[in-house]
């Protein structure tokens, strides 16, 4: 899975970096359409701004992870797992900012913007952070044997969050669609690699669920 995600993410990165015309054309068509809707639908746009700026903001997602790490230490004495979780989220942020700086893709520019954002566009930091956090927490719930009701609820919340944050970033005109796809791919790659490291024969497989 990690190899497949790396291949897809790497290919998309190259296409964005070389400004492949078909991709830019598709990005532009989708973005222009959604921007027209965003300008027209004031109520929905306002709701999306609240979701993307507060509920699915990267800082909020990192705080959720910090709370999960604290719970692991407090209730499970799982110091290694808590450290692994925190380090993975931090590394995901470093990867995200590094790729942004390397590609330096401009964000969409509109004569009548409905929102604003800083830094380069590719990949979407909101989409990547949501993918990393939700992916890690889902894997931890699975590993610690979450009940069926909790698992189904967590999966539903994760899917809505990861898909929803991507939709809001395109709707608000601060990202191209391929930025969001890139965020999803790189986020999933970080999760896959982190789980692989955790489950390394000399590490995670030899540890009990407490550590």
From TrEMBL:
Pfam families found in the cross-reference section: PAP2
Chain ranges passing through the membrane: 54-74, 81-99, 119-141, 153-174, 180-200
Keyword Glycoprotein among record annotations: no
SMART domains: acidPPc (SM00014)
CDD domains in the cross-refs: PAP2_like_2
All copies of domain Phosphatidic acid phosphatase type 2/haloperoxidase, residue ranges: 81-195
Keywords: Membrane, Transmembrane, Transmembrane helix
Lineage top rank: taxon: Bacteria
InterPro entries per record: PAP2/HPO, PAP2/HPO_sf
Protein name (database record): Phosphatidic acid phosphatase type 2/haloperoxidase domain-containing protein
């Amino acid at each position: 899975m990690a190899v497949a995600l790396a291949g897809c993410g790497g290919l998309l990165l190259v296409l964005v970096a070389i400004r492949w015309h078909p991709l830019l054309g598709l990005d532009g068509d989708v973005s222009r359409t959604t921007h027209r809707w965003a300008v027209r639908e004031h109520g929905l746009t306002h709701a999306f701004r609240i979701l993307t700026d507060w509920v699915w903001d990267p800082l909020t997602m990192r705080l959720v992870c910090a709370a999960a790490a604290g719970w692991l230490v407090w209730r499970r004495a799982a110091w290694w797992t808590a450290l692994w979780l925190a380090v993975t989220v931090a590394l995901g942020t470093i990867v995200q900012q590094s790729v942004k700086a390397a590609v330096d893709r401009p964000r969409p520019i509109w004569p009548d913007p409905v929102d604003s954002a800083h830094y380069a566009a590719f990949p979407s930091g909101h989409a990547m952070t949501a993918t990393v956090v939700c992916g890690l927490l889902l894997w931890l719930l699975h590993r610690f044997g979450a009940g069926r009701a909790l698992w189904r609820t967590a999966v539903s919340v994760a899917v809505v969050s990861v898909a929803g944050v991507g939709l809001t970033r395109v709707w608000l005109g601060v990202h191209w669609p391929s930025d969001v796809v890139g965020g999803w791919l790189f986020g999933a790659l970080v999760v896959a690699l982190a789980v692989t490291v955790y489950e390394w024969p000399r590490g995670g497989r030899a540890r009990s669920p407490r550590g």
